[in-house]
Amino acid sequence: MPSQFHNSGFHDIISKKKIASAVPTTLLGGVSGSTFAPHTKLTDIPIVVFDFETTGLEARTERIIEIGAVKFVNRKESARFTQLINPGKNIPQNSTDINGITNEMVASAPTIDSVFPALHDFMRGCLGVAHNADFDAGFLSHESARLGVHCNYHLICTLKMSRALVKTPRHNLDTLANHYGFEFEARHRSIGDILVTAKVFWRMLDENNHLQTLGDLTPYKQDMISL
User: Fold this and answer.
1) Which of 7, 84, 128, 166 could form a disulfide with 109 if both were Cys (CB 3.0 to 4.6 A apart)?
2) 45-74 per-position pLDDT tens digit
3) pLDDT-flagged residues of the chain (< 70)
4) 18: which residues sit within 8 A by CB, 6+ positions away?
5) Packed helices 133-146 and 112-123: angle between N→C axes, nearest 10 degrees
6) What are the structural domains, with CATH classification, of the chain?
7) For the whole model, what pTM was predicted?
């Protein structure tokens, strides 16, 4: 059974977890995240690409129905986190039409309260990456705040990166996948979108050799949202 300190600084103290050059920002008061020195090389940072499927677009009123996160070390997948979530409310048909997740699929799934502590443990001490990270950061902040956890993750938005670095008429994930010749395992399901997002991220780094450190990615950083 998880300790009552599972998502606290006390948990990190007793487990003595250390991840690469990250400095975990995990305090007893309920803060979860990570910070890195600007000069830290990207090759030295564990990266978690994450994605949420939700009942709608507004973080304050809608709920997460699927969590996906994949951890990479030196661009190689080292761990995967995926879970359907019972949102405690009806999934509207327009949401199901996009991601294929139905009320029946989540009826016996766990609630966010029982899953988010494990997600924080998975992400803590890593650089977060998401496409249109403003959306995912909003849900991450809001759902964490409901559980009494303040987020302080260092996040990079691949949408911001692509708008600056990739010459395509649009910069949604479908357009970028087509531009680079990547295929989805499943579109609008968390893991399928994550794997393409990761490939797009690596390709943009390869095409722009000046991006070597975390500081080089500052223009594409997504601020965490206080809700």
Assistant:
1) 84
2) 999 999 999 999 999 999 999 999 999 999
3) 1-29, 225-227
4) none
5) 120
6) 9-222 (3.30.420.10)
7) 0.86
